[in-house]
Amino acid sequence: MLLPLRLETRWTPASQGEPPLYELRLTNGGRDTLTGFTLGISGPARIDPAAAIEGGRLVARLSNHTELAPPENFALAPGATWTLRIRGLSDPLRHWSDA
Predict the structure, then answer these.
(1) Are strands 46-54 and 81-91 parallel, antiparallel or unpaired?
(2) Dist CA 93 CA 69 (whole Å)
(3) pLDDT tens-digit profile of 58-68?
(4) N-term to C-term CA, the chain
(5) E-only strand ranges, 19-69
(6) Quick check: helix, strand or coil at residue 78?
(7) C-alpha span between 45 and 23 (Å, rounded)
């Protein structure tokens, strides 16, 4: 089954006493509501197990692979966007293209 999903990432470096922010946005472009799912990502952003995560939770991390989940009983309706904001990386991003 092909799901029309769009994943966007944004990284904001630390500034003026604020820690860096790693943001992920998953948009459901399909016709069905999604429930009970997880999002697997890999790349240079290693999310620290003690990271502050707004909008979801860390399920697992193995080196550069991370699995994230939305809050319990979350439903991603057609046209809706699930946003995760993460502050706390074990290996911080250094270049704009890292995100």
Answers:
(1) antiparallel
(2) 22
(3) 999 888 889 99
(4) 27
(5) 21-28, 34-35, 39-42, 46-54, 57-62, 65-69
(6) coil
(7) 11
Which two tokens mark 98?
Answer: 């890292």
CA angle in degrees (0–180, nearest 5) for 61-44-62: 20
6-45 pLDDT, tens per residue? Answer: 999 988 888 888 888 889 999 999 999 999 999 999 877 7
SS3 for 93?
coil
Q: Which residues, including other chains, have CB under 8 Å from residue 92's CB and lie 6 or more apart?
A: 20, 45
* Whether 42 contacts 59, CB under 8 Å: no
pTM for this predicted structure: 0.86
